[in-house]
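Journal club prep — side note

Before the paper discussion, L.F. wants everyone to see what a predicted structure for a comparable chain looks like in token form. Sequence:
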Amino acid sequence: MHQLHRVVLSVFLCWTLTANAEQPPEHAYVSSAHPLASAAGIEILRQGGNAIDAAIAVTAALAVVEPYGSGLGGGGFYLLRRAGQPADYQFLDARERAPLTAHPDLYRVDGVVDPKLSLDGALAAAIPGIPAALGELTQRHARLSLAANLAPAITLARDGFAIDAVYQERAGWRLAALQKDPESSRLFLDQQAIPQQGWILRQPELAATLSMLAKQGTNSFYHGAFAEKLVTAVQQAGGIWSTKDLSQYKVKWRTPLIVPLAEQRQLITAPPPSAGGVAIAQSLLMLQRLPWQQAEPAQRAHYLAEVFRRAYRDRGLLGDPDFIDNPTQALLARAHIVQMTDSIQVDQATPSASLAPSTEIHEGDHTTHFAVLDQQGNAVAATLSLNMMFGAAFTVPGTGLLLNDEMDDFAADLQGSNAYGLSASVANAVQAGKRPLSSMSPSFLEGPNDFAAFGTPGGSRIPSMNVLSMLEYLNGQTPKQWVATARVHHQYLPDVLGFEPGALTLQQQQRLQKKGHTLEELTRNYGNQQVLLWQKKTGHSDAASDPRGQGVSLSH
């Protein structure tokens, strides 16, 4: 009889576990900022690759088709979900690193900081992390070879592709800088002018560099003849790279920031040197204590402004964890969240000047983001950057390698503020071998019933955009609605509530002004989100690309 009970109990438990088990995603998805990059990821999934393989392919393809947003000469953050019970979350920090001879006065001339030195040209470039990331992801988690995953990008670089209006616009923003560099001008312009739509951008030198990585591995980028070629070109152009800088570069596996939320959900997001993950976590924790869901639009915008104001104020306390002790736990402690939330007044804006002073960061907002979900439940959300459009606008001759200008993400002038109006952060001062602080914050929200991935380019606006999409998700909206929601933004300093054109009606603006907000309607929309959803009880999966961009979400 006891044996029968055990059999019955065993059958019952097996049935219960099966009934409660996750249903794998019906479809795999790739959502990126460019159709050709999304197609590259899908091609790899069809060949039997997993989400990590697809992420490698998308990264490389974006380096070809979005030279204004990311590339082998840049860096980024990768947030991984490895399927299992429970799921395993990993965070790969491929952020660029300051050269070993960098110092706080690197961009100071005759006692005054020259901002152009950290924006244009070889001196603005930090040591790239993307090639190392491709190798690390391949070694740890890929099913396919690096050569297989780089093949779509190599074809795109060799055969070329037709440029579009987005390329034209962004080349226009950096036209003068591109014209100054002979190699960048030769590659990315047509007779020193912005190319016409349909012009074929071919990058045979970049195809050769990608082929080298495919055949020799990514160490070939940081060692040997290729590294020496990079260093020689950078030094001849006024930069300070050395072969030691390249040989010592390593990506970092860091522990993701995991924060419990209401309804058994948790936020999985980027830790420092991202400042964005902490800001997202603080914002969501404060909003949980406020009636944002019941508030009419103007009142909700008020709550958002006040939450963002406080979260952004704290960002200046953060920096590269290899150089400073980040007060992450203190910033997310319940007492601090309660204190900040309780200081929010229902009908009155809090002047930023009245809050305890802190410091802020700055960065370029011209970045890229993509998300991948495979049919086993593995997922990747990655935000990559060169910083400004076309990075430093300096291309190493004979390599196709467009370098970043991420050194501008450091606080070059600790006494002043930057072009974005953000004051400097001592924790983010220029220092040899240091990674600059970033707002890039690929993020997941996961609970018993579903999994969602979020991320976007947008510089200092990245955390607020991610939060706004997350709120749409929490309100039960579809992924297309997450990315399409109108955007408002506050970043502590300047003390201004910015909003996209048409995001607030005239009546809503008047209500907010009565509460004491200074408003600024922006001249154009911003951001380019890529999101994923997997409903684990049914297996339904979905994805969406921001309607503000040209990206597409493709399924397999």
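L.F.'s comment for the group: The CA atoms of residues 154 and 422 lie 39 Å apart. Keep this in mind when we get to the figures.
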